[in-house]
Amino acid sequence: ETGVTQTPRHLVMGMTNKKSLKCEQHLGHNAMYWYKQSAKKPLELMFVYSLEERVENNSVPSRFSPECPNSSHLFLHLHTLQPEDSALYLCASSQSTGGVNEQYFGPGTRLTVT
Amino acid sequence: DQQVKQNSPSLSVQEGRISILNCDYTNSMFDYFLWYKKYPAEGPTFLISISSIKDKNEDGRFTVFLNKSAKHLSLHIVPSQPGDSAVYFCAASLGGGGNKLTFGTGTQLKVEL
Q1: CA quadruple B84, B87, B92, B97: dihedral positive or negative?
Q2: Is A35 helix (H, G, I), strand (E, B) or coil?
Q3: Does A41 touch chain B (CB under 8 A)?
C-alpha cells in the first residue's frame, strides 16, 4: 500500500465512449503525475501537476484530458480513444516537482479500448 | 529513441546468490538515477537511488553502482530472496527540477529456490 489509490482497476470501453480514471493520494504530496505503460515499452510520462497547476504536457493527444481539482485528486478524462490507447495507466505523486524526489505510484488502471 | 535501456528483459537467479540488474543510458545530462520494483497488479515502488556525484549507494541487501564514464548503472541484490522476484525498472532524471523521470523497459527477475 503506497498511499496512492486508483479507480477503476480495469476498464473496457468502446471508441465512442467517455470515461474517467481517478487517482487519490493520501500522502500530503503537492505533485501528481499520469503515466502510460504500453506492452514492452517504458513508462511514458503524460502529465505533471504541481499544486493543482499543470506544469507538463508531454505531447499527449487531446482525447486525454487531465483534471486536478485539488492536490489530493487527479483525473484523466477519456473520449473517442483508439485501440492503440489500450495500456496500463499509472498515477504517481511526490512531495514536489522541485529537485528530484521519489514518486509513489498507484496500482494502475488497465484500459482496453475495443 | 530510448534514453534509458535495460537490455535484459529477464534474469533468473538462485536463492542466496547475487542478482545483478543492468541499465545503460545515453543522456549525459542525467544526474539522478532510481530503481523501482514492480509486483504484478501493483504499481512500481521506489527501491533505491543514486546521485551522479556518487558511484555507490547501499541500502541493506541492495546496492546501486554508477559508472558515469560508461553511462552504466547496476543494481546488486545479495543475497537474493524469492520475494525479490519482480520487474525492476531503472529511471533517470535530468537536472533542473521538474522531477521528470525517464524509465527503462524493465527486467523481470525470478529468484528460484
Answers
A1: negative
A2: strand
A3: yes
